Every structure is written in structure tokens, then in C-alpha cells.
Recover the amino acids of this structure.
């Protein structure tokens, strides 16, 4: 999934869901988790492999982009809060490059009548598109290719969840079923584990 070119000494930037090791090679440290037989990133950052204790971590990237989002860009962000009509999203990467700007985006939720509950929850990592930058507000949309929730956990117990369908998840620990608007990647990874 990561399109980072294999240049020498260039730090390895990964996105949530990217494979960083197999479970035979490394155990997940901070910023990583186990999915099936792989260790995957749970946040945007640089891969650090500690050979001494065979641990792989994803740490916030030092090599940051100072680009400002423009309409049509793709972002990866973390949902800071989600109410019935709007979610606030911290923008961690713009066009798959980690951002140094600590910007916040606004995802409007009220216009979609299909939804019975919020498509995102606080703590979720999402991929979204920049709809507009009117009045210096970064308006986000999930209505774009690859967009939706790319990493989430059970809102009941914090356990690992799998996709039941494109908009429903189930906790593997407590069985709680919840709704999310899932990215294609999330659904595909869940299916590969069944
Ligand atoms: Zn649970």
C-alpha cells in the first residue's frame, strides 16, 4: 500500500494498515498491532525496528511535509471528536506524506440520510478527501476512492474489530456490533483473516 520509493537511507514512512513485518520477525511496539500473520502500522509515521528485542514501532515522522491541504487532496487523520452533525479530524498526512502543520479538518455528517448513526467515532483513523478550503476551514468528505475508516477499535471494550460488511464491524473480544463507514482496505484486510 505504501508507495514510498526504495531510496537509500530514506526513512520508511508508513500509513495505518501498512504491513511493517511478519509476526515471526517482530513483535508490535507502539504504533503497531498484529493483524493475521502480519504486524501493521496503526498510525502515520516512520518504521523503527529494534533488533535487540525484535520489536517494531511506528514513531511520528521527523521528515515532515509543510504543504497545506488543497481541494482534491487526500488526507489521513485521527478523529478527535464526533457529534451527530460534524466530526473534528486532526490531519496527520496529506497525499500520504506526514504533515507538520497540526491542522484540523471538519467532516460534515448531517447531509447523509442513509446513515443511522455516526460513520466515524473519536479515536478512529480515517482517510478522507479535501472537499474545499472555504474560509480557511478544511472541509472533508468520505465520498472518495479509498476513503473511510482505516483503523478503529471496539467502542465498548477497546478490542480488535473485523468488518462484517462495508458499514458494520464486530468486536473479536466482546462481540459488540457497531457501525462505521469503512475504507476498502479495512474490509479487505478483515476478509483475508476469515
Ligand atoms: Zn469489544
Amino acid at each position: 500500500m505504501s508507495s514510498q520509493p526504495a531510496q537509500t537511507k530514506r526513512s520508511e514512512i508508513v500509513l495505518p494498515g501498512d504491513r511493517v513485518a511478519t509476526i515471526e520477525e517482530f513483535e508490535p511496539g507502539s504504533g503497531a498491532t498484529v493483524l493475521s500473520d502480519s504486524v501493521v502500522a496503526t498510525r502515520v509515521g516512520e518504521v523503527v525496528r529494534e533488533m535487540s528485542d525484535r520489536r517494531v514501532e511506528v514513531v511520528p515522522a521527523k521528515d515532515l511535509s509543510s504543504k497545506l491541504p488543497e481541494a482534491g487532496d487526500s488526507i489521513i487523520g485521527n478523529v478527535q471528536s464526533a457529534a451527530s452533525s460534524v466530526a473534528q479530524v486532526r490531519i496527520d498526512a496529506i497525499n500520504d506524506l506526514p504533515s507538520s502543520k497540526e491542522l484540523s479538518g471538519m467532516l460534515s455528517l448531517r447531509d447523509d440520510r442513509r446513515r443511522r448513526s455516526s460513520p466515524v467515532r473519536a479515536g478512529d483513523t480515517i482517510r478522507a478527501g479535501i472537499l474545499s478550503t472555504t474560509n480557511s476551514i478544511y472541509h472533508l468528505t468520505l465520498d472518495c476512492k479509498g476513503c473511510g475508516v482505516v483503523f478503529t477499535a471496539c467502542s465498548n471494550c477497546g478490542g480488535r474489530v473485523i468488518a462484517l460488511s462495508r458499514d458494520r464491524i464486530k468486536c473479536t473480544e466482546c462481540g459488540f456490533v457497531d457501525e462505521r463507514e469503512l475504507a476498502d482496505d479495512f474490509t479487505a484486510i478483515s476478509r483475508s483473516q476469515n
